[in-house]
Design a protein that fits this description.
Shape: globular
Number of strands: 5
Low-confidence stretches: 134-139
Helix content: 25-40%
CATH topology: HIT family, subunit A
Number of helices: 5
Radius of gyration: 16 Å
Structural class: alpha+beta
CATH architecture: 2-Layer Sandwich
Distance between the termini: 45 Å
Mean pLDDT: 86
């Protein structure tokens, strides 16, 4: 039998109760813990973070700093800032990971699949030809081949050298 090693998933598995308060708001406020919270970029009104439980390597979430659950609640300035950070994040992923495509989108509400349904966020999921294989289909397992910490270091290094 083959074994899949994904030690970062244990914290998710062991969580028996939901944390109180908004996870994304906590990350926005804790600037001094950007490494621990996997923050890649910050702008005036938005933040870009690595998803702790990614669908694929490089899976980012872009969210407004303000606790708003829908695009309709954002000002024009916040929308522009959010989209500019999304584009900047995508360019950064291009430079570091060279994906062949992306899935980009939002799930608004729990019925739409939102795990965090009260704080708007946009997923950016890099894709490569062949990254969907038998593992998710036959064993409901997704293989992510790089640690989040290693990827965060690579992304930050690229930002510093730009």
């Amino acid at each position: 039998m083959d074994k899949l090693w994904a030690p970062w998933r244990i914290s998710y598995i062991r969580k028996s109760k939901k944390e109180k308060g908004c996870l994304l708001c906590k990350i926005v406020k804790l600037k001094f813990k950007d490494n621990q919270n996997l923050v890649v970029l910050r702008s005036k009104f938005s933040i870009s973070i690595l998803n702790k439980f990614p669908y694929n390597n490089g899976h980012l979430m872009i969210c407004p700093k303000a606790h708003k659950k829908d695009f309709k609640q954002l000002s024009q300035t916040e929308i522009l800032d959010l989209m500019n950070l999304l584009v900047k994040s995508q360019k950064l992923l291009d430079a570091v990971l060279s994906p062949q495509g992306y899935n980009i989108g939002s799930n608004l509400g729990t019925v739409a699949g939102a795990g965090i349904d009260k704080h708007l966020h946009i997923h950016i999921v890099p894709r490569w030809k062949g990254d969907t294989n038998f593992m998710p289909v036959t064993s409901k397992t997704k293989v992510v081949s790089q640690s989040l910490e290693e990827l965060l270091r690579q992304l930050r290094k690229k930002i510093q050298n730009a």
